[in-house]
Amino acid sequence: MKKIRFIIALMSIISLFLAGCSDDTAATATTAAADNSTTASSTTDTKNERTNTPAKSTVSTPSSMSASGSASSRSTTKAGDDSDFADDSKIYPMIKVVVAMMKDSISMADLNLMLVDARIAAGNTASSTCYEKADYTITFSQAMYNSLVAQEEDFGGEEGAEGSMSASMKSMIGQEMDGPVAYKFQDIDAGGYAQEVLTGETCDTLKESFRWNTAKTKLASQFSDEMGDDTFTGTFTYNGDDNVSTFSIEMSGSMSLIMSLNMAVCTAAQAADMTGDCAVFSLSQKFAMDGMTMLMQADGKADDAGGYGVGYESFSMQGMNMSYGYKESFAGDGAVTGSSTCTSDCKSAGATWTVKGEMDTEYEETSYESGGENAATVSVSGVTADGSYILIETGKTPSANPEAEQGFGQINSGESFWDFWGPDKTTVLDVYKDNEDGTFTIQSGASVTIS
Q: Among 73, 80, 141, 300, which is most buried by a count of CB atoms within 10 Å?
């Protein structure tokens, strides 16, 4: 089911461009639930607190980024009104799609981290042992369930929604169930991380990784899946020291598609006059197929009541290059209250913008640092060709060691974008080109500096 949801989400992203871990854990738990008709009677609000694995997986997501908030008090426009410019929007629909995928991935990850946390608490310490699903049992508690619900709601979901982790796990409250995943928990010393959990259907197919530092304040997770000729690779990270989250998803095979979202909790100055959760964000998208390449990069700020984004899109095909600009104001309920577009030389001071509706200037900033106040500055030399690139711990390869990836980059028609999410800025990194056919080529002359 997760594959299907990702396919639908990715297809919607592609349609926007042209217009201008697996579900095995949930399936296992659901099957076990069908064999158990008893459910717990407790309705306490107590949440599970992880102490042996990182306590958090993400920063809080502003409600407006999932259209689960309220209408803006600064605009008369409501979602669905004639004055709602959602049909003219390019940035906001992409934000909502990526946030929805982020919810699915992190909810699944939280379940795995809670279960492993319980196993460690029971005395199963780090070792080279891999446990098959039949090797252990877990009692799923009310507190675990409450934590799943809280995580889904933070991303704009609802308790018990179709396909959600809470819907799959509710009937298991208070029940002992067979292990939902095979897993290995081990100590490591790699790229600033100190411990690692690998999970999968069997010990021979461990496809999802979780890594964290000694203080358990920095978490990185990667998962992969296949559907037909297409391969999906997803990564999310959480930096509790700097209050930053990242999420990226890549598809290769029949086409090449990469998209990422970075979020940092607003500083005190940025949060002034904001409502509820506040974050600055950066959105990056690339789509390539049949000699056509499109790249968009957008930045903005959002709170529970609304937000603003400004983005630039470049398009190249058969020697033809075009560029566009977009500025959008959106409300918590999903209405796009203002839309501004540009079709030429959009980054220049004299660019012409066509405005529709009301642009909410309360969310505008002179710069949006989605890496937080201590954001890493990435400098890559020796790489100039258009394409997508992966930053990975030196000596590792993306095909054999995807868990060692610590960043990525995009170059298109002279425009470049680089991102680093690793816990240690002193880590030595190699650069690989991510080819459209799913293979990787090391860039032997590249040099990466993280400061």
A: 300
User: Which pairing describes strands 320-331 and 336-342: parallel, antiparallel, or unpaired?
Assistant: antiparallel
- Give per-residue pLDDT as tens, 123-148: 998 998 999 999 999 999 999 999 99
Residues 304 and 277: their CA atoms lie apart, in Å, by 6
What is the pTM (predicted TM-score) of this model? 0.83
Residue 116: count other Cβ atoms within 10 Å of its Cβ.
23
> What are the boundaries of each domain within the chain?
2-363, 378-450
CB under 8 Å to 75, separation ≥6 — which residues? 329, 331, 335, 337, 358, 360
Question: Is residue 155 within 8 Å of 99, Cβ to Cβ?
Answer: yes
Measured in residues, the chain has a length of 451
Nearest to 236 by CA among 251, 250, 223, 220: 220
Q: Which two tokens stand for residue 384?
A: 């100039």
Q: Rounded distance, CA 52 to CA 48, Å?
A: 12
Residue type at position 255? M
CA distances from 107 to 199, 216, 268, 309 (A): 15, 18, 29, 26
| Residue pLDDT, tens place only, 267-318 | 999 999 999 999 999 998 888 778 788 888 999 999 999 999 999 998 888 7
